[in-house]
Amino acid sequence: MKPVAVIALLLTLAACGVDGEPVPPQVNSTVTLSSSGMSVGTAVTLGRGPFRLGLGAAL
Questions:
Q1: How many CA atoms lie within 13 A of 23 on its CB side?
Q2: Is 38 domain-assigned?
Q3: Greater confidence, 28 or 51?
Q4: 18, 19, 23, 27: most buried by Cβ count inside 10 Å?
Q5: What domain range includes position 30?
Q6: Beta carbons within 8 Å of 2's beta carbon, 6+ residues apart
């Protein structure tokens, strides 16, 4: 199984509450302007206690 698929599966299980109370995801987006152009990034993170899982993409 690909690493991205494993992370997506774990995020889905944590978000649906299979191991207890559902955890709402945090969504962060950034837009960066520089002299070389513009870049956009988005990340979705789930956390419980000291553990955090995240998945992000930059365009």
A1: 21
A2: yes
A3: 28
A4: 23
A5: 22-58
A6: none
Q: If DSSP codes are grouped into helix, strand and coil, which group holds residue 44? A: strand
And the tokens for 12? Answer: 């889905």
How far apart are the C-alpha atoms of 55 and 35, rounded to whole Å?
Answer: 27
pLDDT digits (tens, 9 = 90+) for 25-38: 888 899 999 998 99
Whether 40 contacts 59, CB under 8 Å: yes
Q: Kindly state whether residue 4 falls inside one of the protein's structural domains.
A: no
Q: How many domains does the chain have?
A: 1
**What amino acid is encoded at 13 in this protein?**
L
Q: Is position 51 within any domain?
A: yes
From CA 28, how far away is CA 11, in angstroms rounded? 15
Q: Are 35 and 18 in contact (CB under 8 A)?
A: no
Task: Classify residue 29: in a domain, yes or no.
Answer: yes
